[in-house]
Design brief:
Layout: H1 8-25, H2 29-50, H3 64-79, H4 86-91
Length: 94
């Protein structure tokens, strides 16, 4: 099943409704609770990927005297940001 980002809240709602019914009527509720937790973890992980992290960096103009300011800001906001992976760090250079 393919769902665009705009369809995620509806998907979560539908999944929640089905899970409630399964947990209510099926005696294997532990497995359903595990399934719910697994789905919700994946949902929030995907949702986190979709949220763009906006970091305002100074523009590089080619002026060597401005580079140290850029380098310090980039290091502080991007390199030392533990919430960014290597690919995200690289994208901030583009």
């Amino acid at each position: 099943m393919r769902v665009g980002l705009e369809g995620l809240p509806q998907l979560m709602h539908e999944h929640d409704e089905v899970q409630k019914q399964l947990e209510l009527y099926d005696e294997h509720s532990e497995q359903h609770e595990h399934d719910r937790e697994s789905f919700e973890n994946t949902y929030y992980e995907v949702l986190g990927w979709s949220t763009a992290i906006t970091i305002k960096l100074p523009a590089l103009t080619g002026n060597i005297t401005e580079f140290r300011h850029f380098q310090g800001t980039f290091t502080s906001l991007v390199i030392n940001n533990d919430s960014l992976d290597n690919i995200q760090e690289h994208q901030h250079l583009l």
